[in-house]
Amino acid sequence: MRFSIITVNYNGKKWLSDCLTSLLNQDYQDFEILLVDNKSTDDSVNFVKTIFPKVKIISNNDNKGFGHANNLATKSAKGDYFFFLNPDTKVKDTKFLSKLAVEISLHSVDVAGARIFDFKNKPLDVDGELGIDFLGYPGRGTFPFYMDGCALIVKRECFTTLCGFDTEYFMYAEDIDFSWRARLYGYDVRVLYALEIYHEGGGSSSPSNISFDKVYKIPVFRRYETEKNIQRTLLKNYSLFLLAFILPLYYVLLLAEVIFHLSQRNVSMVHALIKSVFWNITNIKSTLTAHKIVQKHRILSDFELLKLMHPKINKLLT
Q1: Which positions fall inside the Glycosyltransferase 2-like domain (predicted)?
Q2: Check: CATH 3.90.550.10 for 3-199?
Q3: 223: exposed, middle or buried (C-beta count within 10 Å: 0-12, 13-18, 19+)?
Q4: Domain segments of the chain: what residues?
Q5: Containing H/E element for 196?
Q6: 0.85 exceeded by the pTM?
């Protein structure tokens, strides 16, 4: 089988009909769809079983996050390529998979993404918008450094060698870490510009009861998870030599942000940022183990990698 399309769902019933219908309307049929449900409470599973009987369903007893669910699905998947696709997406082009098959025949595709638009046809993650700075923070860059996890195509061999997604990342920034490690290991990471995906953006991770930063209207949980995961990404993927320069700057900026939010009496955001640091302190043993594995297998040097990153600090530009 050529493609295994893997969708992780948590209370995404309102998106699933459009997403799955767009996949089943493809003119290329050498694929399977696996839906991993992270203990949804919106009747998603019964809905898919009834309306889309061809979809293979994996039901988890609890929600361990995006990476864990995707890794689990790959163990049952039969495809040569894994296509990780969020439920709040549409594949409008019925020739999408046909075009993907052609791209694979023409290029050595290891890790790839598509051009991404919102449902109003506004381009989202294209070119520099998928860049990161040298502190691991996403934003504009010289060219795409990482492929967005909402629509990520990975060769099975590559995914296996990288041991999949890091399951310590509940959600957010796991695509940055995965693409970073893929580059370090010498794999090709590219955007396939002939392919287009339409993404609601946050639709699969925005429950109504989530608390928001009152200054910038950013979900506090998202800031915690992103900050926590970026710290772990730096600790795993940079050499110890470069970490000696990177980490002090990272934590000085984080401290400045904490002071700013204190001045705004934004206690929830201060708590989230400090909590992200303590998580990495308490989990340093597993991070150092992962660091050793990455450094042992890497091919690309830090200095070669830095050439692919934005030299300015994205956090200061937003």
Answers
A1: 4-122
A2: yes
A3: buried
A4: 3-199, 220-317
A5: strand 189-199
A6: yes
